[in-house]
Amino acid sequence: MFNDRRLLLIYTIVLIDVIVGSAIGPIMPEFVKGLPNPQLWLSAGTALFLGMQLFSAPLLGKLADGYGRRPIVIISAIGTFVADCLLLPVRVGFYFANRLSDGTTNGMYAAVRSAITDISPKDQLFKNLGIEGAIISLGFVVGPMASGLLLTTFDVVPKDQAAYVTIMAVSLSAINMLLSWGFRETHANPPGISRQVLKGELINALNVQRLWARLVEKSRRYHGLKQLVLMQLALTFSTGYYNYFVAYLSVGQLRMDAKDISYTFIYFGLLSIVINYIFYTYIADRINQRRAIFWFALLGTPTLAAYGLVGTSEVMFYVVLTIDCLTLSLIQGLIEGLMAQLTTDEDRGEIFGINQAMQGLGSFATTLVFGAISLIDLRLPFAWFTGCLMLLTWLAARQMQKTFVKQIT
């Protein structure tokens, strides 16, 4: 199945990392239990985790270009292990410490996507990145499933459930640390980075204005990059509902417990695996990707709005979830594939790092927005997510128009 065995290890590391993250998702409400407006505290933790990527992702991406992908994968695996250990005391303070620590070293995906692009032939690029998307979906299935099986098999009482799941997460992240040491470098002859350049990179990473300037500079070299990153940013705003789901499902009208939330992620993940694999293996390379982004965004817009209108009906919720998998859930891989085609070995990690930082900025901003407006009405954030997807639809339409004009002139 894999022309390069390094892909198998990369996918395995990604799978375990997502399993760990998704396994602890359903127990996160336990860390803020008893606090006023728990959905706000959950949102604050998510904002902290994602906001840390504003400076860490570009820095780690630059390091991946200078010293190779392997060191960054190892550092990220160690960071996840340490962060999970911080959750062992089920206290709100340790929850925020986990979000801070894990967010700082969460640069693995910039390095991983750079590594996949390094070793993928051009005709296999969309497929290999699509498989990565399917692997991530699989992790979202296996994680909650593992938590559910653990709690059911050992008949764990509610007050101990968070501790049991955290111990499992720590064990899995320890396995990923070992696997990361077996990761073989994919970036031939990395040039290294001087101490002065590294210091400048750290300063630049803390400057959002400079981050945008770097994106504009790269876009001059790689025509169309800025437009793709802006589309990715709009998508990030709209997919903030992924981070809102746990709070919405547990505190909202559906009133799901940890097991019900686990079943939701299992269904969503299983369906995404099948759809992503079929689409990216047999369809993505044969269609106009930019046009597909437009249509998926257009059809996904009413889907996002519908999440806020399902009320207490789990049947309607699962219908909307199914349509979600067939539309807007496919956009991410298309944008990443188009972006990967614009990069070169020279600065691939840096570009993916800038993109991840922009996503971190978008995730941070959208989390602050949905956290605040959820205090008014728990359904209101889905109006925000819908509006952001409408923005993506408009950006995709403009990009199609520019491409058409260029073709006829």
- List unreliable stretches of 5+ residues: none
Q: How widely separated are the two ends?
A: 43 Å
What structural class results from the helix and strand content? mainly alpha
Question: What average pLDDT do the residues reach?
Answer: 85
Let me know the CATH homologous superfamily of the largest domain. MFS general substrate transporter like domains
CATH architecture of the largest domain: Up-down Bundle
- Sheet bearing the most strands, described? none
Gyration radius, in Å: 20 Å
Helical content, roughly? Answer: over 70%
Count of individual beta strands: 0
Put simply, the count of helices is 19
SSE string, helix = H, strand = E?
HHHHHHHHHHHHHHHHHHH
CATH topology (level 3) name of the largest domain = Growth Hormone, Chain: A
**CATH structural class of the largest domain:** Mainly Alpha
Q: In the residues, how many domains can be counted?
A: 2
Give the overall form: globular
What portion of residues belong to β-strands? under 5%
Written overview of the protein:
It is a single chain. The model has no long low-confidence stretch (mean pLDDT 85). The radius of gyration is 20 Å and the shape is globular. It is an all-alpha fold. The protein has 2 domains: 1-206, Up-down Bundle (Growth Hormone, Chain: A), CATH 1.20.1250; 208-400, Growth Hormone, Chain: A (Up-down Bundle), CATH 1.20.1250. The chain is built from 19 helices and no strands. GO terms for molecular function: transmembrane transporter activity. Resistance to tetracycline by an active tetracycline efflux. This is an energy-dependent process that decreases the accumulation of the antibiotic in whole cells. This protein functions as a metal-tetracycline/H(+) antiporter. It is found in: Membrane. Residues 6-401 form the Major facilitator superfamily (MFS) profile domain.
